[in-house]
Write a structure and sequence with these properties.
Elements: H1 7-25, H2 29-36, H3 40-47, H4 55-64, H5 70-83, H6 98-106, E1 109-114, H7 125-135, H8 141-154, H9 156-159, E2 166-172, H10 173-177, H11 183-197, E3 202-207, E4 221-225, E5 234-237, E6 244-246, H12 249-265, H13 269-284
Parallel strand pairs: 1-2, 2-3
Antiparallel strand pairs: 1-4, 4-5, 5-6
Protein name: XRE family transcriptional regulator
Organism: Streptomyces yokosukanensis
GO molecular function, one term: DNA binding
């Protein structure tokens, strides 16, 4: 199987197509589940791309939807086969946020708001290691290193020569000032942040404390956008034990508008670099 096959995106596209076929048939997920003698939750998970879809699932659903064009059936079966392949992140074992990594790997652009820490795609190795140790104090050394390695691998999207990820990051001032690891680690991290912000496809802005109340007070979120028009944008909300993915157009639009307000209230790009540099200088003393 070609290495550029992204199983997460394949599942998502396949799920969207299966939902479209169900809606064309005028059936509810409950009705389909009853016909196939499965739970309604299974149909929902298949359609939202959060569950692997077997070729048997596709065959059964196409039967229920009375899909007569064999070319459509064959195409869906091929997508099901691709969706069961493993992405690069599977070589690291069980990754709690593997669905997000799959989406990030295929995204064209990413907008992130981080209230507490430097976003993962712009972290140094030392900062990432100290962060995981602090956030997950009962985690083994091997598990910490695995998580850090995954984070460093994800950053290849930023430094790729061809089609790098377009990244826009709004950092709350707390993320810049919070000492993670040590002052030396922070100095290196902030210097790295300034360096990465010089890339033409990377934008970093700081949201200062003096702004007061703002639309990001509810917490961190990311908006992923994709090149293929068939892939709708996704809002990602990270949780402690589970994550939330919002794909409805009205939900995505609400978060996009919030992000525009955050960008407008933040320091501009040059002011942000100067602010980060000033804080970095304080850590050198």
């Amino acid at each position: 199987m070609a290495s550029n096959v992204n199983p997460t995106v394949r599942r998502r596209r396949l799920g969207q197509e299966l939902r479209r076929l169900r809606e064309l048939k005028g059936m509810t997920a409950e009705e389909v589940a009853e016909r196939l003698l499965v739970s309604q939750s299974k149909i929902s998970r298949l359609e939202n791309g959060r569950r692997s879809i077997s070729q048997r699932d596709v065959r059964d659903l196409c039967g229920v939807y009375e899909v007569e064009d064999q070319r459509i059936v064959d195409s869906l079966m091929e997508m099901a086969r691709d969706s069961r392949q493993q992405g690069w992140w599977h070589t690291f074992g069980d990754i709690p946020y593997s669905v997000y990594i799959g989406l990030e790997t295929d995204a064209e652009s990413l907008r992130v708001y981080e209230p507490q820490l430097v976003t993962g795609l712009l972290q140094t190795h030392a900062y990432a290691e100290a962060l995981v140790q602090g956030a997950l104090p009962e985690t083994s050394t091997n598990e910490i290193e695995k998580r850090v390695q995954v984070r460093m691998r994800r950053q290849e999207r930023i430094t790729a020569e061809n089609n790098p990820l377009r990244l826009w990051v709004v950092l709350d001032e707390a993320a810049v000032r919070r000492v993670v690891g040590s002052k030396l680690v922070m100095r290196e991290q902030l210097d790295h942040l300034i360096e990465m912000s010089q890339l033409p496809h990377v934008t970093v802005q700081v949201l200062p404390f003096e702004v007061g109340a703002h639309p990001g007070l509810n917490g961190q979120y990311a908006i992923l956008e994709f090149t293929d028009a068939a892939d709708s944008s996704v809002v990602y909300l990270e949780g402690v034990t589970s994550d939330l993915y919002l794909e409805k157009a009205q939900d995505v639009q609400k978060y996009a508008v919030m992000y525009e307000h955050l960008r407008a209230q933040s320091l501009n790009v040059e002011q942000s670099r100067q602010f980060i540099a000033k804080v970095a200088k304080d850590y050198a003393e």
